[in-house]
Amino acid sequence: LYYRRIHGKRLAQLLGLKPAELEAEIASMVSDGSVYAKIDRPGDIIRFAAKKTPEAVLSDWASDISSLLDLVESTTHLIHKENMTQ
After folding, report:
1. Which pLDDT score, from 0 to 100, does residue 49 have?
2. SS3 5
3. How many CB atoms are closer than 10 A to CB 22?
4. Other C-beta atoms within 10 Å of 29: how many?
5. How confident is the model at residue 19 (pLDDT cuts 50, 70, 90)?
6. Helix or strand holding residue 82 (H, E)
7. Which of 29, 40, 49, 71 pairs as cysteine with 35 (C-beta 3.0–4.6 A)?
8. Partner residues linked to 40 by β-bridges
9. Rounded to two decimals, what is the model's pTM?
10. How many CB atoms lie within 10 A of CB 10?
């Protein structure tokens, strides 16, 4: 996913559409289910990423911490191995 949020004017410019046409096109794609989007009309911002539930955020965080700990363990092992050969 390249854009999680973008200004409506910029997206309309990229797609070669008028702002009114852009909103209709996005609404059509959302109703078809081909894309998830929320339009903030006052801010003219379109968000394409659905908000994550707290459980999903916690699960992602736990996965990232696990990966970090694996890297620390691997690095520690390599440091001990290097110290043993000297």
Report:
1. 79
2. strand
3. 20
4. 13
5. confident
6. helix 54-85
7. 29
8. 45
9. 0.54
10. 13
Judge whether residue 21 has pLDDT over 70.
yes
* Structure letter (DSSP) for residue 7: E
CA distance 35 to 11: 15
Q: DSSP per residue over 21-43, as a string? A: HHHHHHHHHHHHTS---EEETTT
Question: What is the spatial order of strands in the sheet that 45-47 belongs to?
Answer: 5-7, 45-47, 38-40
Q: Residue 35: what are its φ and ψ, rounded to 5°?
A: -150, 150
35-85 pLDDT tens trace: 889 999 899 999 987 777 899 889 999 999 999 999 999 999 999 999 998
Q: What is the pLDDT of residue 85?
A: 86
